[in-house]
Amino acid sequence: MNRSFFSPLNVALLALGAAIVGVGFFMLSQGPVDGAKSMTVAPVLLTIGYVVVVPAAILVRDRRPKDKSGD
Fold it and tell me: Which of the four, 8, 15, 44, 68, has the lowest number of CB atoms within 10 Å?
C-alpha cells in the first residue's frame, strides 16, 4: 500500500514550475531597473510559474489505469 499523492508527472511539473520561478527571480535581480529582462520577461515568467505551472502540478491527474490487484 505504497501510494503517493503525487504521480511522477506531478513531481515533474512541480519541478518545472520551481525552475521557471527561480529563473524569473534570477532575471528580476539582474540588470538595471529599466532593462527589458527585469521589467518584462521576469514578471511574465513569474506569472506563468505561479499561476499556470504550479497549480497544474497540483491539479493534473495521471490518466494511466490504476492497479486493481486488491492490495
Answer: 68
Residue 20 C-beta-side C-alpha neighbours within 13 Å: 20
Q: Tell me, what's the pLDDT at 51? A: 97
Full-model pTM = 0.79
Cα angle vertex 62, ends 5, 54, to 5°? 70
Alpha carbon distance 50, 57 (integer Å): 11
Question: What is the spatial distance between Cα 19 and Cα 36, in angstroms, rounded to a whole number?
Answer: 20
pLDDT value at residue 67:
63
Contacts of 59 (CB under 8 A, 6+ apart): none
- Rounded to whole angstroms, the Cα distance separating 53 from 17 reads 5
Q: What torsion do the CA atoms of 20, 23, 29, 35 make, to the nearest 10 degrees?
A: -90
